[in-house]
Amino acid sequence: MAGFFDSTLVVAEPTKMNYTPIPVGDYRVIISRTDDKVTKKGGRMLSAGMEVIEGEYKGRWIWHNFNYECANDIAQRIGQQQLKAICDAIGKPKLNSPEELKNKPFNIHVKVVKNEFKGELENAMSYVVKLKSTSPIPHPSTPTTPTVKTPFIAENVIEDEDIPF
Questions:
Q1: Which helix H or strand E contains 82, and what residues bound it?
Q2: Contact indicator for 52, 22 with CB cutoff of 8 Å
Q3: Per-chain mean pLDDT for the chain
Q4: Nearest to 30 by CA among 116, 101, 117
Q5: Could you tell me the residue range of the domain that residue 103 belongs to?
Q6: Residue 60 belongs to a domain with what CATH number?
Q7: pTM for this predicted structure
């Protein structure tokens, strides 16, 4: 064998990545990537890549940062509430490592926001969607139970939907 890989034998194809935002709505996702980071101010932030696993937008990614240790009490409370909602949704109340969040399906509500640095529209996780269920397998004659939304917004904080863009 003359080496690991010879790129001169491969014809380059244009990248077909789609970075346009997916529509606002509820999506089934798994966390596929995690990166536990130290923030510029010495706090702790978990950066997570969530992959849509069902429907028309299967394979698309939503990125989110969870500020779980932060000098700003409101930001820390929001980040911790967000992580708690995911832990509750996947049935894992205590984590030893961010790796334990990976590959466990749950539902999120996705919104579209303007990235202030890039000036472009992008997706963001708004909240985890909790599914109410009284039995593991509903009877066919039983109507489906509606979803209950668990917002992360702390008291007295303006929701993004209330800000005109």
A1: helix 73-90
A2: yes
A3: 82
A4: 101
A5: 19-158
A6: 2.40.50
A7: 0.70
